[in-house]
Amino acid sequence: MLECVINISEGRNLDLLDDLDAAAGHSLRDRHADAFHNRSVFTLIDDPEGLQRDVRALITEAFKVLDLRTHEGVHPRFGVVDVVPFVALAPDEPSRAIELRDATARWIGETFDVPAFLYGPRDGVLRTLPDVRRRAFGDLAPDYGPSASGPTLGAVAVGARPVLIAWNLWLSGVSRDETRALAKAVRRPEVRSLAFRAGEHTQVSCNLIDPMVVGPSFVYDEVAARLPEGGQIVRAELVGLLPRSVLDREDRSRWSQLGLSEDQTIESRL
User: Fold this and answer.
1) What average pLDDT is seen over the chain?
2) Contacts of 35 (CB under 8 A, 6+ apart)
3) Nearest-CA neighbor of 67 among 157, 156, 153?
4) Distances (CA, A) of 250 to 29, 166, 255
5) Buried b (16+ CB within 10 A) or exposed e, 2-19
6) What does the alpha-carbon distance between residue 155 and residue 215 come to, in Å, rounded to a whole number?
7) How far is 109 from 95, CA to CA, in rounded Å?
8) Class of the CATH domain delimited by 165-269
9) pLDDT per residue as tens digits for the range 148-195
10) CB 214, CB 206: distance < 8 Å
11) Domain positions in the chain
12) CB-CB contact of 89 with 163 (8 Å)
């Protein structure tokens, strides 16, 4: 089984998101939508053939109904279908994830005339998603598709990566600058983090790159210890799913505090 965690630049129009759910077919295991980010994360898991079919159907529908020119949200993005990472869920499947990545990026470029950038391992070099965001259309040309992005659909980053955990902390009584300082304090090779304003709250938004080494409780405790006077953690939020092995590393008594549950594991959705 392989996973694809598609990030789409729409998080507010629920009727439209329901249509995208339908397009994702049998492979869809979870959808997380956020109105402040105006972004949704669709988690698809299936065998390679079924996953490729449903990933292509979801991307096709998103390209049909979304327009980057009307999009606004706090999360950085450069396409209506912004990020398409393939994840091997078994030790013997990384090469299959890379094959699906390459085939999907080529299909996007050739079918829709949309620039597609690869990330993950390629020709012995590891290119990260932050590398793509920073360098795209500068010193990094698209791997497939045209050399410039159109105003309607933008561009797509298509990757192959290990399992990571997308996980956020919502804060109150903390300024944007203070939140930036907190995000910087928890940043390390195992944690990528950004700071956002989200309505009346701020948010430390994290990708836990190696969650078996640095998990949610570590980041929670680091932020809690550094909160400015009057600041508090309102809630923790998992975006998408996580492996049961990561959940089991955390003290069960803290699952609720960390925004985690058995129902949010990959295994519970299969």
Assistant:
1) 96
2) 11, 12
3) 153
4) 23, 16, 7
5) bbbbbbbbbbbbeebbee
6) 31
7) 21
8) alpha beta
9) 999 999 999 999 999 999 999 999 999 999 999 999 999 999 999 999
10) no
11) 2-161, 165-269
12) yes
Domains 2-161 and 165-269 share a fold: no
Q: Which two tokens stand for residue 115?
A: 């620039």
Using CA atoms, how far apart are residues 261 and 202, in angstroms rounded to an integer? 24
**CB neighbour list of residue 141: distance below 8 Å, 6 or more residues apart:** 147
Burial 42-81 (b: 16+ CB within 10 A, else e): bbbbbebebbbebbbbbbbbbbeebebeebebbbebbbbb
Give the mean model confidence (pLDDT) for residues 30-57: 97
Whether the predicted pLDDT of 76 surpasses 90: no
Cite the DSSP H helix spans in 37-166.
Answer: 48-65, 94-112, 129-135
Confidence of residue 3 (pLDDT cuts 50, 70, 90): very high
Tokens representing 149?
Answer: 């992005």
Q: How many helices (H) and strands (E) does the chain have?
A: 8, 11
Q: For the structural domain made of 2-161, what CATH number should be given?
A: 3.30.990.10
